[in-house]
Amino acid sequence: MKNIFISLSAFFAFTVAASAQEMQDQLDQQPTQPTERQVQRDAKAAQRQEEAVKEADKLREKDKAEQKKQATKDKKKRTITPSTNKKTSTAPGKQ
After folding, report:
1. What does the alpha-carbon distance between residue 76 and residue 80 come to, in Å, rounded to a whole number?
2. How many domains does the chain have?
3. Residue 46: domain span
4. Residue range 20-35: average pLDDT?
5. Over residues 43-55, mean pLDDT
6. Which of 63, 85, 84, 66 is closest to 74 using CA atoms?
7. Please, which residues have CB within 8 angstroms of residue 34's CB and are 6 or more apart in sequence?
8. Residues 6+ apart with CB under 8 A from 88
9. For the residues 10-29, what does the mean pLDDT come to?
10. What is the spatial distance between Cα 34 and Cα 40, in angstroms, rounded to a whole number?
11. Helix, strand or coil, per DSSP, at residue 4
């Protein structure tokens, strides 16, 4: 009778230990809940990142506008200067 009691006690002890281990494994697999401080820090970081992207976009637009102005200015310079090296002829094939 003593052997049966010890065997059953050992069986139940191992069963409870295995169940507790499974429960702990499930808890370990779940991500931890973020704290309010972490959420605020992440929000600030996201806001800084968004501001940096907006600033970069503004700079890109500004550079694009300057390049467009410069191209227009260069085009105007080329069209204003007369070309004196042109040879014209009224007869076809002679220049």
Report:
1. 6
2. 1
3. 35-76
4. 88
5. 97
6. 66
7. 42
8. 95
9. 92
10. 10
11. helix
